[in-house]
## 1
Amino acid sequence: MRSNDPTIVYFLIAYNSRGLINVYKSTNSGTSFSALGDSGKSMLGYYSDGSGSNTGQGWYDLCMVE
């Protein structure tokens, strides 16, 4: 992430079941956000293609890199 650009903000939301809901990005200091992924996929689960049940490690050890 570009730490020298304060207008770029990211956040993510995970289900109680630990699955990732989505990652969001703002380019206007958090005034509005756009979803970066497909919320129907299981991106924290076992399969790398996003298939399977939407579970995983959404409650810990996540790292974001731009």
## 2
Amino acid sequence: MPKVASRPWRVVEGGLYDAWNGLTVDEALGKDVDAVSGATYTSNGVKNSLIARLKAYQKQLK
């Protein structure tokens, strides 16, 4: 059975979402953001989702 994040609220409290504030798409795609301790799976899911959406958005602009 796969592991499930038990503390997704840590992502918010840990400031993960704030890591990309004020960045351009290119800057955000190039930024290396660390996972929040205690919410690694959730952090990685958020990062992977954001990267996928930014790449899709970037592709639409071309």
